[in-house]
Amino acid sequence: MPQDSAGSDHPDARRGGGKAVVIIDDNASVRRIVGNAFLENGFSACGEAGNGREGIEVVKKVKPDLAILDLSMPVMNGLEAATILRKLFPNLPIILFSMYSGEPIEAEAARVGVDAVVSKTEDMPALLDKAHELLHI
After folding, report:
1. What is the span of the domain harbouring residue 25?
2. Are 101 and 93 in contact (CB under 8 A)?
3. Rounded to two decimals, what is the model's pTM?
4. Is residue 93 part of a domain?
5. Could you read off the pLDDT of 2-24 as tens digits, one per residue?
6. What is the CATH number of the domain that holds 122?
7. What's the total number of domains in the chain?
8. Which tens digits make up the pLDDT trace of 78-124?
9. What Å distances lie between residue 103 and 13, 40, 55, 70, 94, CA to CA?
């Protein structure tokens, strides 16, 4: 099969390119599954946090290329954390990865600076595809 000049048919063309990601979710299993998926997809590092407040501190330290936040977490939820992250890091792509979705959530997420909302009911490739899209890789 012929490739175009950008090589987009190459199997590694959509890999993570060594980009770092921070996963902020109160469920350790979700953090592990998402982190492993990103590491297996060529991302270089995966920072983790169990709530929004911890997540902000991890993002400050790691300075990732992408942040993935759950909506419903103790201490500080994903929308509150996204608001602060957007002020601190105006160019950081932020994905809200949550069981909750729909027009009201997406509208509020967009209002606070979230770049994309992906439902946890979707399969992992949907989250990876959105990350690639936001990072232009």
Report:
1. 20-135
2. no
3. 0.86
4. yes
5. 333 333 443 444 477 889 999 99
6. 3.40.50.2300
7. 1
8. 999 999 999 999 999 999 999 877 788 899 999 999 999 999 999 89
9. 33, 32, 25, 17, 18
